[in-house]
Design brief:
- With 177 residues, the protein is α/β, with parallel strands linked by helices.
- The protein has a single domain (4-21, 29-175), classed as Dihydrofolate Reductase, subunit A (3-Layer(aba) Sandwich).
- The protein contains 4 helices and 10 strands.
- The chain has helices at residues 31-40, 50-55, 96-105, 116-124, and strands at residues 4-11, 15-17, 45-49, 72-76, 89-91, 110-114, 130-136, 144-145, 156-163, 169-175.
- The radius of gyration is 16 Å and the shape is globular.
Length: 177
């Protein structure tokens, strides 16, 4: 059984993107980013929602391309249509059985690439095992929330904390069942 890990940058006020999906205020270089890229190499599978996948188009991702070549990638959506020769697999968003199957049969940890609504859906169904936060010293005020509108008072255990130059804080939490 492999863990499902939500590894994401978040503002102090709980947003993973600002208004209009703006991510420009988050670090794009430095040790916090280098450590994140190292962690990406440890994941076997990437899962995400449609909005997160389509967000990649802004940065040159072609429809059907895999944004993580070292991982098998699944996009959960009821409406996303991709070319027939896609390098990613689209799964109906409500198919929790597929996520449970991936968790049971993956060759390594599963990376939740976002976004907030998708992560909230997974958390509300008790499917996220580990939360890795790159806490940015910024206030965004609005945008995409860490878990969308979902919240159920879930308790977590802080297992790792690391302070970076510039005020970034990495925290890893084990999600209590």
């Amino acid at each position: 059984m492999q863990p499902i890990i939500y590894d994401v940058a978040v503002s102090i006020d709980g947003f993973i993107a600002g208004a209009g999906d703006d991510i420009t205020k988050f670090a794009h270089e430095g040790q916090v980013v280098e450590d994140y890229f190292e962690r990406l190499n440890t994941y076997a599978i990437a899962i995400m929602g449609r909005k997160t996948y389509e967000f990649g188009y802004r940065f040159g991702l072609e429809p059907g391309a895999n944004p993580y070549e070292n991982m098998k990638t699944f996009v959960f959506s009821r409406s996303l249509e991709l070319p027939g020769e896609s390098a990613v697999e689209v799964i109906d968003k409500n198919e929790l059985s597929k996520i449970k199957d991936l968790k049971a049969n993956a060759d390594g940890p599963i990376y939740v690439c976002g976004g907030g609504e998708f992560a909230g859906h997974l958390m509300s169904n008790r499917l996220i095992d580990i939360l890795r936060l790159k806490r940015a010293p910024i206030l965004l005020g609005s945008g995409v929330r860490l878990f969308g509108d979902f919240g159920d008072g879930r308790e977590m255990i802080n297992t790792t904390t690391r302070i970076y130059d510039g005020g970034y804080l990495f925290q890893e939490f084990q999600v209590k069942p």
